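This section describes the prediction task in plain terms. A model, or a person checking by hand, is given the sequence of a single protein chain and must write out its three-dimensional structure as a string of tokens. No templates, partner chains or ligands are provided. The sample shown here is typical of the held-out split.
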Amino acid sequence: MSMLHMSQAGSSYQLDIHIYDAYFGYDWNMLLLLSLEMDVYLQGVNIYVGKKLSSILEDDDFVLQGNHSARKLLEKLDDYLCDVEPVLDDAELKQFGNDRVKKWLVDLQDALYMADDFLDELSTKAATATPRDPGNSSPWSHSVDSTIEDNGVNVIEKIVGTLEFLVGRKDKLGLINSAKLDTSWRIPSTSLVVSSDIFGRDEDKENIIKLLLDDTYDAESPVTVIPIVGMGGIGKTTLAQLVYNDTKVVAKFETRAWVYVAENSDPDNVTRTIAGEIDFPPCNMDNFDSLQTDLKMKLTGKTFLVVLDDVWHDQRETWEDFLKPFRYGSNGSKILLTTRSEKVASVFATNNLHYRLSLLLEEDCWSVFLKHSSISTNSKQYTTLEPIGRKIIEKCKGLPLAVKTLGGLLLNKYYEGDWENIFESEIWELSENDSKIVPALRVSYHYLPSHLKRCFVYCSLYPEDYEFDKDELILLWMTEDLLQAKGNNRLENIGCAYFDELVARSFFQPSSTNKKLFVMHDLIHDLAIFIAGKFHFHLNEWENLHMIDSKTRHLLVTEYKGSFHLFQEAYNRAVHMRTFLDLSVFDSFQSIDIESNPWLLQQRLRVLSFYSFTIESLPDSIGELIHLRYLNLSHTPIVALSESICKLYNLQTLKLRNCTKLEMLPSCMHDLVNLRHLDTRGASCLKEMPKKMSKLKHLNFLSYYIVGAQEENGIRELGTLDNLDGSFCISKLENVKNSGEALEAKMGNKKHITL
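The expected answer:
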């Protein structure tokens, strides 16, 4: 029988598999329960430990032999995770104003990262092990008898000890169960507006008014719903107030009602409020049917305008019932709603009626800033303060709420130093009492589903104003198990849905220079950076090296301003690093000999990008990076890939784009059973594909297939690869011997291939 021996060397765990004769039954159910309990949301990262064990939990007979102390520790770990989970929402909210809570969350997330790495290694070793006793009658997939030796126990002891301490601290920090978002700072909107305070919305105002005055209506309902959609703080409510009070609109509608919905989206309350607005005093009935009947009577035969301001929830069935009384109004009646979510808007109206509000132009922002800072263009200070003020509004990137808030902070302040302080300070250094920018955007983040929070926070790794590619980001999300598998739906499709949802909620927006790429507004980017905290680090200034430590899991480099020695110091400080990305805009160091610099291959790496590095080969030690899921060697002069790459059981993405000197792929690539993305575009010297590519059943993207002369790398190897998606090129078709071989490629089954 088998036993998993674990030893700890430095910061990595080493597992050696041995076969033993004695059988001990240790139920995997307890470990599965542990893995499920670790599926908790924490600071934008959800550790999917359960998925790590999926390959070894497929069979009910799959068992693990463990000593008594190890089992007790795992049970304790499970208990402590259950203890902290209920207070995570409260801790997440309080971290914005309480440094001790922020540190508590950081320490907790660090412990979960450690546990995740440990179980990932355990499950990988179990999944890749093979029985060494040919006489063993029980298949390895049906029974594994394993135990965690002393050093492995020490690892768990450290994690459990940290969690025990953190559980003890939660009460002292005043953390409570099931906290709700504190929105006490948010003043409910009203229909009143001072039009002289508004700049840059004249065209938007006229466009909405035209829609409201249009008597065209759907045959199925006399009422038309017009959603105004945009990110938090962009001015949706202000625009709605402008049109609501316009003289032409007032004259058009017999009755009007303004309702601030926000979190209080209960149909009873909203219906009661509208009825009260139309005919005071408000209805006191509690029965929803009675409320709806009352509202129906008040709307029947009237042309009405109802504004639903700040709608968050997207339950279609709930809103369909809510809207029934409005069908009895006269033709031309309108409902105008404001929302941050395209999904909410789609519940109420077809896409062609959505009015997406854009950011303000710079000069309009300057007008808003002057209004709220009360600086006159005729004052003697204006000449000195204008250059600083324009730099301040530039940081706001067209977001009116940010401009108003920062202008308000400088109200009646004429000293140049005050303005410089606002410009130089980070937005997060402003106190909650002084700034509404942080909580305004935080509301949008709070209402994200937990799986989208994790994906959004991962994007903090990108530098400010970086234009990122949708498909590339989805590949990176997969490396951290941020995509929740659903039935037969491919991970790539799930990632696409997540991405589109974040676009719909205004967290991402199309680039103004390239519509195929996306960017984050600077303040949204700042929010992601704050929540990511110590775990994500963007290295572009070498004087910040001291900020990198063992908690840094994701490292991005965009600019080299120092020596190779400084780069090595930064790299080595992040001893538990999961992600290393290089996005530098110019060539990296002239040449890197990885054989002479083994520190570049850290054991816990999941994402490793040597994009454009001057690398000609990889050492055999690359095969020891058992956590690795993403390897990018694009634009390198690499000549050959080590066969040890084929040991990377978890590898999902291998990028070899424009590797113009690469002639052969490793012969055992068929062992990369989890490979999903193989990009060899521009690798013009490749001669043929490796044998048995048909075993890569999860392959979703294969840019290029070179038909080989032998049966094992011929055209028929494509027959089982039905998940291929996107563009696809086949070369050396002269190696196809007959039509029978061509038919075995089953190209007709590849429904996702695009021409």
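For orientation: Residues 1-67, 132-147, 430-434 have pLDDT under 50 and may be disordered.
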